Structures
1.
Amino acid sequence: MNAVEIEEAVSALAERPFDPAEFPFAFLEAFGNKETTIRRLRSGVSNKSDMGGVLQTNNIHIVTCAAGEVTHTLSALKASPATSRAKAQFVLATDGDTFEAEDLESGETVVAAYTEFPDHFGFFLPLAGISTVKQIRDNSFDIRATSRLNRLYVELLKDNPDWGTAERRPDMNHFMARLIFCFFAEDTDIFSKTGLFTDTIDRMSAKDSSNTHEVIATLFRAMNIKAEDRSSASLPRWAEPFPYVNGGLFSGNMDVPRFSRIARSYLIHIGKLDWKQINPDIFGSMIQAVADDEERGALGMHYTSVPNILKVLNPLFLDDLRERLEEAGDNPRTLLNLRKRLSKIRVFDPACGSGNFLVIAYKEMRAIEAKINKLRDEVDRPSEIPVTNFRGIELRDFPAEIARLALIIAEYQCDVLYRGQKLALADLLPLDAQNWIFRGNALRLDWLSICPPTGTGVKLVGDDLFSTPLDQAQIDFENEGGETYICGNPPYLGSKWQNDDQKDDLKAIFDSRTPAWKSLDYVAGWFMKAADYGLRSNASAAFVSTNSVCQGQQVPILWPLIFETGHQISFAHTSFKWANLASHNAGVIVAIVAISRDAPASKRLFSIADDGAVIERQVSNINAYLAAGSNTSVEAARSPIGGLSPMLFGNMPRDGGHFILSADERRQVLDQYPELARFVRPYLGSEQMIQGKPRWCVWIEAKDSEFAAEHPYLQALLSRVRDFRASSAAASTRDFASKPYRFVQIAGTAKRYTLAVAKVSSERRPYLPVHLFDRETIVSDLLFALYDAPLWNMSIVASRLHLVWVATVCGKLKTDFRYSNTIGWNTFPVPILTDKNKADLTRCAEDILLAREAHFPATIADLYDPEHMPTDLREAHEHNDEVLERIYIGRKFRNDTERLEKLFDLYTKMTTAQGGTRKRRAGASA
């Protein structure tokens, strides 16, 4: 369940008659507990309450009590030994009239009337596995509003199916935008009386809902008629109190969908919410999925937290503005110049969704402007920051509508906050008819025409704020000549997940630049468009992106093209989790990358330390891998650049599966032909090594080929292999039909032992899978092999240092690590190792193997599950990391960013010393 679904369930519980015996179970069910979990609690199997309530281990202790005993019961719950033993995070007591709860970890409390406890549902979201940021808990209203509007939207489409068609969906979206404005307006004095819109519908429409659509249509019509025209408009008396709004919001198609009784009830309940609490940035990002059939199941999951947005906006330009404000002190002329600078800044989001980046940028700039006005004793001064300087492109219709509305609401809220209600109201209506959010495909539209560098205007034609995208009014920037900041969170989509249209979008941008563009993530198109825009404008751009565009094969494809335009990476935030409101959501791993042709000499590099703290470093250059260092692209090397042992491919049979034996097949063969035991050998790929699944193969060497050709079982086997190879479409396979006894590709076998490394492994594991096998084991082509290599090589592979390098330069397959011997191993920079270094690392590898052996028969998958990794094994790896990292810098690295910086520095020095044959400066060639 996501947060919106939980809110709906909690609200439904509060509306039902209070049942003391049932409430604890219904409460837990509302937060996503499964039926089997509830059944175990009911039976007492997992319910350890010592107060006759319900106690769920690690979560909550709930007791319903007699009237007036809530506070006393809550105190008893806190003192309960069972609460302590179960490590419950929450305690909750209620008598059906009063509701009290406490978070025992933070000390925060909730005290409310029982019917109002849904207002605090965000307090309990950890029960559903939602590790939510404080902003969500403080803004439960936005989730509740989204939930109710979603119910209304679905109900209206049920009764008006034609409004869900492609032709009428824009009308439906426009209708919802009008409703949201009216709900906000009636609670914020924009309308003359609180609740005017909802109360009028409740009073004037029939209880059976037969004329609800007519009443709403009349109100919408009233808001499209100027005061001087009303005498001739034949408006009913009850519609006259509504002001003229227009701005395109109440013009055009005035149709209203028909309402059922349920839909009418939903609408009135929505109107009873306190819309003064709305946060247009949060609300907008959550509600944008309402109008998308495919995304409605993920309602609320588009939420982007303000702190995450500020990770983009602060270093992009807001930090500089705040520093200039602090430097200005109370100097009136300096403050005036800063205010003029603010008024000229343009913020452009070419993937704006519901406008949350634009709204946050606007609100933060208004806060800075308000401080300037206060210092200049001009607090009532109208804002000089025009919303037309905040522009966006959005592909979908409904989010674009919400983005326009969110900026209008944000502007009004800022005016109320900084200038007062009276002045804010005087400047709001009628709405400005200019449209600054454009609906269309950002990778196909000309950004220079939408956000022109000189402020000459958009060269498109149209007539109102909510018009369709390409019928767009020409809008001049009110204060031209300033900086332009491009920002946003574009769609990611790896190459395998792009549809034909999206591939065509990238082709249009990259086809003339590089033949390798098909390997790029979709977000790469935004980076390239921003770089092209920067050639013609004083602009800097920063995007949230999947970290894959800064890893593996995409680096030498994309970033030389960016750097060739004269752009540098001006700041970056290395990989971190961009979480949403989904229950137990791990969040996508993203990076933030900013590019500019006018980057400062000192670049800002942000990273997350091992303890979770944010580290900021000032560096001279940030390379495409988001490490401090020169713009180097790591390319495949034929052999290790340091003193590492050669890593080879495994062995490939190309046999049609005839050489491969399962456990049962092996047993049957050896029962019948025990003399073949020397030919049947363990045969392992990635799955067998990691999951511990046994498999065997028939392995015949040249010296035994004559014996095999005469043995009845082997003879038949070789005949099947010969036939398979002879019929192959690949000439290289047909060539080996004459040698059916052997594997086609034999990279090597061990005389003593093999160190095997998985080609693909889960990113959840804290270390790369590597294992030691005896000489009898045959390694398949799904593994890489170090044959008879000194054991200290295992210490290198099993280190955090090597995993970080591989994740960065090799990239990933979907979300899994994709290992490469030529890129990941051969390029891995290792200092010259002394005999003592090698002995220390050998002991570390032995300790890791001994720690694994202590947990036999646990598999690598079992042992390296991050939530269940044995303590002794984890300690062995941590010791290995410390020993290896001390060889590099004399201490452990603070975090992965520092690890990469050292590795790239060493890589550059080592490849330069070898004549530069294995490196290429980004931009030097394609």
2.
Amino acid sequence: MMGLPLSFTEPLLLIGLVSLPVLWWLLRLMPPRPRRIEFPPTRLLFDITPREETPSRSPWWLTLLRLIAAALVIFAAAGPIWNPRNQAAGSKAPLVLLIDDSWSAAASWDARLRAADETIANADADRRGVALVPLSEPARDITLMPAGAARVALRQIAPKPFTAERADALPMLDRFLKATGDAEIVWLSDGVDPGRGSEFVAGLGKTIGERPLTVFEGGTLSPLALADAENAAAKMTVKVLRADLSVPGGIVRALDAKGSPVGDAQFSFSPGAHDTEASFDLPVELRNDITRLEIAGERSAGAVQLLDKRWRRRAVGIVSGSTSDTAQPLLAPTFYLTRALAPFADLRLGDRGAPQQVISQFLDQKVPMIVMADVGTLSPELRDRLTGWIENGGVLVRFAGPRLAQGDDDLVPVKLRRGGRTLGGSLTWEKPQHLAAFAADGPFAGLAVPKDVTVSRQVLAEPDAVLATKSWASLEDGTPLVTGEHRGKGVIALFHVSADMRWSDLPMSGAMVEMLRRIVDMSGYTGTPGAGPAGETAKATLAPLHVLDGFGAFGPPPSTAKPLPANFQDRASLDHPPGFYGPAEGPTAVNTLAAADRILPLDTSSLTARRASYTNAEPRDLRGILLSTALLLFLIDAVIVALLGGGLAALVRRRAAPAAVAVALLATGAILAIGVPSPARADAASDEFAMRAVSQTRLAYVVTGNADVDSIVKAGMTGLTLFLAQRTALEAGDPVGVDPAHDELAFFPLIYWPIVPGAPKPPQDAINKIDAYMKQGGTVIFDTRDAVEAPPGDNGSQTPGMQALREILSSLDVPELEPVPREHVLTKTFYLLRDFPGRYTNGQTWVEALPKEDEDESAARPARGGDGVSPIIITSNDLAGAWAIRPDGQAMLPLVPGEPRQREFAFRAGVNIVMYTLTGNYKADQVHAPALIERLGQ
């Protein structure tokens, strides 16, 4: 209704609102105008001012109050429902459920699952087949399945940590619809357009044709995302993206490699803007420790930006041997180097003092990278220090010039031509040379070759057998422009041109910036010599280390994750999910969004479709609230009328005390009418609980009041329910938490009761209901969950959990118990089991003791069981702890001792127990076994 989650069970009654103008007119006429009677003697009374006056008409505000009360009554009669459930369209065709399951759907994934589950339930009521189509899996086959199987498959779908290209799924959907014919399409949209949304919307309209379409959108918070993080000179910035313009702002949190917070940055959006910037004004040392940026309160991989060594600002020392730095600073090599390195490095200029003195200072400061522009001869002591610094991981970058051409040292990657290779004898071409393609195995691989860069002079390298392997960039004639090699843990690189504009125009180009950026990425980022991956040889591929799931949490790499190239710079995909790749000491980050990615709201207005919204709350009947409000307004109206007519004042004067009592009684009655639930409401809640319990077979568990225990037990019973649906024909509903003192227990075949040490003993009424439940055929599993605490020997029964259980059982009529015999039917109801492990394996499982049998009967029966099912099962192995799973499908708790198949056997034990409570001892009856075996043999 008008974009609100509101519907009416009897909408035709809203026609009564048309009568409100008539009611306004009638109320304005009341009270009636007084009749005027001519009586001359009353002329003397005209000068007397009356103490009270009665108006001839009702005041407009009183009339408005009465109209509001009447409108509330009409609305209440129409049966308003807040957050109504989405009803089926009434079609008998198969249901095709399109699911947006990329990172943008993760933040409101629970609401989407509820909407999908309700849609599948409506299809189940009409006995229609269901096809699930996750739009992030274009290669997945679309098949129709029963509604029950679709619910199980729905629980196994999780949001993907990358951007899904919806349009890629259209060919698969088109083939399926052509083969199926008529179908009802329901699209669970996330409302986000990452770039090709209009293409998908147009293609979807053509693909489905005239088939009915329902689009779910709205009703949930729009996701936020991070992209384009940059560690600038003064601060670290990151782009915050939004699709919905109603999102005001938030906080971006920075974390280090251990997950500890480093800092927070607030952000807000300008009106109409889809992106903004969050800034971290932190010291460079702290910014270099940041490995993860995330939006506080967001649960998606898109709201996470991972940072690796490429985002860390290295300290770079620059020293020049030229004497023109002071005289002409805008033409000096340090000017061009500073402009090229400033965007991604913290620069330390050695503009004062001799070059050798400055280099020695840089070595004392443990700078990880030093750039030497035309520095010639070095003292032997300084050469030895530089050599040791490089061996320990330092990166030395040298630029040619007259001094280097005349110098003679081995701190260059290749042997240079000497003798006539001074500046005056350098090779000079009549036609300047352009750059050739960069070496595919060098650090500049993948960079675009600038066509406007020319070189007029260079320092030539002496040709040898390894010159080609050390050439990172060359000119068109094959002579090297940049050479480099690894020495120990460090790197030496040489630009065979000067760092200013005398020999080439490379310093003025963007290629110079990108080339220096690649070299800086090879250097360490801390003050410790040897830190960082500078000395490591670049690997061809990087294996996934740990990756993000759709909710932005780290986990092990999935089976679909593949190694990526060492120079990978694209966004995440199915083959390369976001996370860290490569060695743990220097991993490479892959993010969900690339730096240039932006998100916009998805426009589906061109589709002819029924619109529905996601809801985060249960439906709520508003009739009680509206009627209570109307009653309150009528009471206010009565009080106002009494005040205006003077009757209340007279009544107070005559009978002050009785009037006060009456008013107090009226007020108390109104409060009780509004605040106290009526028995009818309590009965309705009880009926709703009963209908929910009997609509499907459900397992139950006792709510202990301990939040941690109850959440684990609920997750455990949910995990067992999913396992039953996957391995057996039982499609049970969601488990139900019960309070034995108040809830009806007869609806559930099995109740799991976790024992909490120190918890108060249940009231006798609850004990009596449990006793009646067990005697009427129900089974209760008492789990003390303390097998690991039980000491060996007879004292094992003295644990706090067992003592609490003894207090409960002391008031119950418990039969004689025994450990589960090896031939008991419980060991063979579905799986063949020898024991019943949970989180622990050393505890015993006890059931009702069966009567002794003679040897002949024992030989004739392969399974032993009584006439019914044991009403009580006692264990200490913490079964629910082993069954508990998180929403992403991973186990919630570890196992002890953690054997390879312990969790699988725990689930099998749960299956046997459930089948035992549902089917009894049918496997103990083998009367027809010989005939069946004989028939199978034929």
3.
Amino acid sequence: MSDGDSARAVFLARWRELHAAAGAPSPTAMARAIGGAVPVNTLSGWFHADDDVVVVPRDERGFETVLRYLYGRSGRVPAGRALDGRTLSSWQQLRRDARKRAVTPGPVEPEDDPVRSLVPTSRPVVTSALRRDVAALLGRDDALERILRLADRDSPSRIVTVDGMAGVGKTALATRAAHRLAPAFPDGRYFVELHAHTPGHSAVDPDDVLARLLIGMGMDPGSIPESLPGRRDLWRDRSSDKRILLVLDDARDVHQIEPLLPTGGGCFTLVTSRRRLVALDGATPLPLSLLEPEPAAELFAAMANRERRADADAAAVRRIVALCGYLPLAIVLLAGRVAHHPAWSIAELAEEFAAFDNGRLDELDVGDRAVRIAFTMSYDRLPARRQQLFRWLGLHPGSELDVAAASALWDCAPGQARRELEALYADHLLEATVRGRYRSHDLLREYARTLCATESAEVIDRALSGLLGYFESRSAAASRLLTRLHQPTTTSVEPAQRAESGPEFDDERAALAWMRLERANLLACLDLAASKYPRRVAMLAASLASLVERDGPWGEAVRLHRLAVETARRLRDRSAEADALDSLGVVYRFTGRYPESADAHRAALAIYRELGHRHGEANALNNFGATRWFSDDQDYAEAAELHGRALTIYRETGHRCGEASALNSLAIVHRAGGRHAQAAELHEAALAIYAELGDRRGMAGVLQGLGIVARLTGDHGEASRLHEEALRYYRLLGDRYGEATALNNRGVAIRLTGDSTAALELHTQSRSLYRDVGVRLGEAYALLQLGMAYAALGDHRAANGHLEQASELYRDLAHPEGRADAANGLGVVARSVGNYRAARDLHEQALRICRDLGYRHAEAEALAELGSVHVATAEYADAAARFDESLRIFTELGDAFGHATVSNKLGALFTAIGVHEQAAAHYAEALELGHRTGGRLEEARALEGLARSRFALGDRARAVDDLRAAVEIYRRAGVPEAASAATFLASITGDAE
């Protein structure tokens, strides 16, 4: 090395060390600081990153000005003190020695030469400056392929912006894409780090980037214009006829990158940024989301140098990446620690990482690559007021929120909240789920919560009180529309609170839509209230329960009401305790816990009477009455008495909605006792009140009751119509429980008209809804009806399976009526496959239960089916006695359809003993009743029996006509009787039908 080279190396080493000590200010920043004493382009040459390109200063005075600035900024000269002459002289000597170096590939700044300054000096040309390719890029195939397609020469888009939150893998994707694209851009592949969010760096000025790019293209630093527009235009000119790939990584904003964009048709620019660069015209945005679970797990395994051999390890990895929020940076950092600890167990790591509920960011701290640092660089660039909103969003216990909730939390106008939320969204500190709703990544929320540690307790309490107050009042407004019997509590929302919650909901459907949308937030707020704000629990729990009772799971409703009971007792709020107990009793009934339901209603009733709350007393009486229908010791007389007392109080207090509910409940009691005319009259009275009030949910419930009465009296067409009308109401209201019940009831009516295939579909839908809502009693009823539909279609195995499931559920729920119905159904299947002993036992079991309960309709069915078993075993006298008992009950109940089924069975009895004239008479009666009630299958059975009787009596022609009509009905219904009837028809006509 020559002396000149040595002197240059010494100067550059000390020059760079001083620049770094001063914080590595950019040439533009230095030019501004020294008032333009040295031009920006000159400074760019003095501080170029390449030792062979850097220019040793020629301007003695300018050099001294910069030297003083760097010494002052580095702190090496105390404030207010000048740089001493001895230091200045030493530096000037270093500079002069460096400029006397022998001629080398690196330049020195030219002396004044008007001719030389016009002739650009040739410089080394840099054509490839890409960073090293990433080791692993998983889960980004679609995004990568899209970039490659957009970079194609024929694509109209020449700029792609990859935006996403900190740590999502934007730079990794851009790096991989650049390496894949490199061969197509022979004139230059440049990767420029703009440092918008790099710790220890200021965002790079576009002036400096342009200087580096132009020097890289071979231009002499002295020929580069000083102004930004001049550099921009020169860059565009030099790149206009070239194929250049430019990657601009970590861009701050559009202003930083706009001057850097080449305009040549052969160039392609790939930008990464944490901001959504919506103002960049002509760019194609490519938002980068979090990884999907499987690629995230693959990334962890790859970076940890572990193979997911065991199922336990695979499950542990899935859990780890989920706890990382599927954020690539978090996954890579944690996996890197594992890679350096081969003795670590993946399963143990998953357990430990999960235990850090609010300390996961500490586990993701690996020097400058810590997730916390990445988040901090984004946070620090926010205005102070926006920083506060970001912090306070971490206080929200839910996972997402809308503008109204944010304005309540932050105590600001909705318009301001909307603008600030959108700004955070633009910075990828929030994600938009739907228009007007936002959520934060789990790790970002944890980061925001850690920042709140600096807030005072009073500030946090004020913010949370505003948020909880909003959800409490808004949910109460919704619940007022969803709850049929409003409770008379002291916790009712006052008018002022109602105003704070915003406008009332337009209708029940709008209220239900809001409650469903905010369900997770309301549950999270309730848990927060239970731990810190107990006086808010009762209202939040009651409001939430009005939703959960519709949508399920009802086990969750039990938890909510029990929490409300416990909190009310802790606060000694007797009124709130009674409300919660009565609501708890209702949900216990829905879930089949009848003794607990009765206890809850009794306790609520005692408190209401103690407080003198007559409205609450009526509610508890009415609800207690409903529990008495279902409990194992069913007592319809007591139920009627309870409903009657409730009705009296409702009428005395002028509560019309309660009056309608009590009338409807009394109708159900009469219906269960077989008093169908009285039941219909009470249902009609309830329907009139609900219609007057415009209560569509109440109307739907009464229509269901009227439909059941119509079915029980044999009018299946009317029953189907009424259930369909109820179904429309429930769907309009979004009431899933009501929808499930209407589907099931309509399926029963349709099956009895002969369309068992359609009934199967309705019962299947109903069962699915019941399971979603968590209504086990409803699911049991759906299983029962599925079994009956399969039995009608001749699929005995499926029928038996569904009926067994129903029976088991009814047994678990201690529901004797259901057990009787299931036993009757199982008996029908047993007889169909020839197991007469089992059939007799099952029907006798059903008969005993029905007589104990006074369940007359099912009693008549059990008697009729026992009669058929006796016919099959040739016990004809016993059969006749059973049929006579059954027919008497059906006649008393006014059930013409039940009468038709028994008439058909009597026809079969007399056919079996060879008395064809009497058999024909019974079949003729069944035919008329079946036709009148819409019971198409009973009509077909009557036609077939009549044909067989007529054939036996010698009337072949009429027998053929009757058989053909029967076969047609059977085939349309898809039932197995079609085959035997067609065979008999063929045998008497000689033709295959």
